[in-house]
Design goal:
This protein is about 40% helix and about 25% strand. The chain is an alpha/beta fold and about 280 residues long.
């Protein structure tokens, strides 16, 4: 009888450990480790790229990782990643959180969990200056360029335009300059830089005021980790209230930088935003 009970107990062990793993609490694990593993880009300025002098990663997302770790009372370990691998680095558990200018989309929302957004990126339509006073409705059915397979391409379809796509942003932008397209779609930050660069080349461009699409930017985490989600959301709200996020923003992409970006939205639940998620 004792032998049978022992055998049954041994048979139950794999199921026990499987259940324990399934119910693991990532936040508790992080607290035990005393560490926040935060994934950032390996070389995408101004978000995260090697500093020319120190060769250490520096940028807006690096500073956000540092501030989040401090707010959570944890030691920071940066995990460099690429644009292509940034979702996988969370899904495979190589990092606890991902701060890499990550926009919420339907597909990504099914793959990983998003925090409350700390800002809202906008896909904007760049046009020749003579078209600056037009509205998005004026560009329905018109040829608009974008990089192939990107959210800007999706936004053109969303707004009723005719996408003309290229393998890289430079080629798509050139299509506008050469009148092969009446507009070019990119995010606000990149658009401001491109308008400034075109002006130096003697080409006057402008940005239509109404966004093509809104893209809430948040912290990425593994799905089904409610304790971690609540902790990250609470930490972001505290960083917003005490001015930490504003300070980091102004340092890297604010009004006095080459990007001239003004932070308009505060940390808030994704459900509070009125937007149509891209795929």
């Amino acid at each position: 009888m004792t032998v049978k009970k022992s055998a049954l107990a041994l048979l139950a062990l794999p199921l026990y450990f499987a259940c324990s793993a399934a119910n693991a609490d990532l936040l508790a694990d992080m607290t035990t480790r005393g560490e926040l593993k935060c994934a950032v880009y390996s070389d995408v300025p101004p978000f995260s790229s090697p500093d020319a002098k120190t060769r250490q990663l520096a940028g807006m997302d690096v500073d956000l990782c540092q501030a989040l770790a401090q707010q959570m009372g944890l030691k920071l370990t940066l995990v460099p990643t690429s644009v292509e691998a940034r979702i996988a680095v969370i899904a495979t558990g190589r990092a606890d959180v991902l701060i890499a200018n990550l926009a919420y989309t339907k597909t990504r929302g099914n793959q990983i969990q998003f925090s409350d957004p700390y800002y809202v990126a906008k896909e904007m339509l760049l046009v020749k200056k003579e078209n600056a006073d037009k509205t998005l409705a004026d560009f329905k059915g018109k040829r608009i360029s974008a990089t192939k397979g990107t959210t800007p391409e999706q936004s053109i379809v969303l707004k009723g335009g005719k996408p003309v796509t290229f393998q890289d942003a430079a080629s798509a932008f050139l299509a506008l300059e050469q009148n092969k397209a009446v507009g070019f779609v990119t995010n606000t930050m990149t658009g401001i830089k491109m308008i400034s660069q075109a002006k130096k080349d003697g080409i006057e461009l402008a940005m239509i005021k109404e966004p093509m699409a809104l893209e809430p930017i948040g912290v990425g985490m593994k799905r089904d980790e409610p304790a971690l989600l609540a902790k990250v959301n609470g930490s972001l709200k505290a960083m917003d209230d005490n001015g930490t996020i504003d300070k980091i923003w102004d340092t890297w992409i604010g009004p006095n930088t080459e990007y001239k970006m003004v932070r308009e939205e505060r940390v808030q639940p994704l459900s509070n935003l009125k937007f149509e998620p891209l795929e």
